[in-house]
């Protein structure tokens, strides 16, 4: 015991020696600099890199890991004394200094936390999923004995150090009598306190398993140092919760919590995918293949037959464009959002699951959301403690990566409102139950949805086919429709599926998933793109031309909007990135225009005639000729169902109700007659053929 006491006393001196003698590889003493800053700016923490201390004295460093509470308390007292010796006025403002240890080598996986780590200093990596607002924890309680004979104040518990549970004394330490005691808040001391929950990162969760979580506690200058959605590395002391805090039968309460000592937020996106030198060589070599882009597209969900343009869109989305910050601070996303709407059983879910597997950082969820936080964020209340938490949803958790959302049409009403901001500004703002916050949601959305009426009806506008408002639809860069039409390709589809099931594939033509994932991570991390003048002028011409066509057409629909121009830029950049090229060429721009055309035609628009009308696609209001024609056909059909034929007068009246003017109706009737779609059964009276 005595021996230990002497040793412990030495720890303080050793630490001072370390601080004074330390030199980094540039010969600087960063710890003395820190001490000076602590004094100058009244900071509360000294941050020590574990490796530095370990190099100086292994025993001291090991002691911090194995017996952190006691050791750190000795060291903190010593540093505090050292600081007030240098500047006595420091103690008037700051009562306690913290030693924060970073770079602790003992990193424990969340799912491997066991009792043997209790009361040890460990490091945990994860994603912060929710946090409470900052509260005040009583750190030094002053009680008053309410007996009129006494009325004395005293500190309780006497040793000042206590955990979260505060027990009222049974007898007065001043007069020794029992009685009533009152906490004197003005004289007591409080420390900022915040609880949060970290969870395993999505890519670490074994397939089919529910992510593990751990409660963590921040105090003093650490509160609010991380937000939900942040990927963090926390160092802290693993503590076991007091029994009284655990209500029996509750599943959401954990046996452990981590009292945080230091926290680092990982800024480096895509570091999770490890790329060796060997991998890099393979990636570089692949990129030199002139058909690399076709090869990548074929490697997307190879077991799914056909759907080339959808696979192409998914590939573009996985590579993404480059985000830009304008001089005025406005941020333009680089993420390419893709939506697939399709009949049931057309492999939508399969394609999405593949996308989530191959994306370097992805969160897979359904529109309903797999947690209470849904797609964006929410404020939840812990049933056991009653605490309010700000909880991150899928798009926030996917920050820096890809949010794969199946059955997006089933999303909840709160998300319907919040997703607009999430998809364009890439933030999620929330103000609820006293919590006001803005979280980052810089994620690409790859989503799929089912048609509102069970099957996709080509004659109707997009928004009439899916249960999503036009405002959300317009935030997707590319939308594709998968219609299940039995026909000539069935034989090929069948043999493709049968071959895949028999384990036969075109292995040599496709890049395996693991390498593809590395390729994508490598491209996203290393390739920043720049538009060449040629590419720029091509995109500009296309945009101007399309806008002009719209202003020439009689009822002047808004043809394409600046949103589509931004989308074209992103798509061109993604094509360049797929070939690991930083230069965006004319050919990339051509491809971008081409896939945009396919998208527009796919949703029912005639590009050649200039009748691309984004408004129509999204709102379903009949503006393009084709759309109007189907409406008039419907009208004729209905009227001639009850009468013998539909009189022009009646058709015009009905059509005007849909916003189609008389002139257009007359012209369309004559067009349709010429095309043999309708015939004049009596003068000025028509029937469908
Ligand atoms: P969805 O989500 O569109 O309703 P699924 O992804 O659940 O459809 O697909 C249903 C099943 O049909 C899956 O097993 C899928 O592999 C198969 N399937 C559908 N279309 C194709 C295709 N084009 N090629 C190969 N398999 C397909
Ligand atoms: Zn008393
Ligand atoms: Mg599905």
Account of the 3D structure:
The protein has 689 residues and is of the alpha/beta class. It is built from 23 helices and 26 strands. A 5-stranded mixed beta barrel has the order 3-7-8-10-9. A 5-stranded parallel sheet has the order 14-17-20-13-21. Helix 4 packs across helix 5 (68-86). The longest helix has 20 residues, at 2-21. The structure holds adenosine-5'-diphosphate, zinc ion and magnesium ion (MG). Zinc ion (ZN) binds next to loops.
SSE map:
Elements: H1 2-21, H2 30-41, E1 45-49, H3 50-56, H4 58-66, H5 68-86, H6 90-93, E2 98-102, E3 121-131, E4 135-145, E5 153-156, E6 181-183, E7 189-199, E8 213-219, E9 231-240, E10 256-265, H7 277-287, H8 292-298, H9 308-319, E11 324-325, E12 331-332, E13 338-342, H10 348-358, E14 362-366, E15 377-381, E16 388-392, H11 394-397, E17 402-406, H12 413-424, E18 427-432, E19 435-440, E20 444-449, H13 462-465, H14 470-473, E21 478-482, H15 490-501, H16 513-526, E22 530-531, H17 533-552, H18 562-578, E23 583-584, H19 586-602, H20 614-619, H21 625-642, E24 646-647, H22 648-657, H23 662-674, E25 678-682, E26 685-688
Helix pairs in contact: 1-5, 3-4, 4-5, 8-9, 9-18, 17-18, 17-19, 18-19, 21-22, 21-23
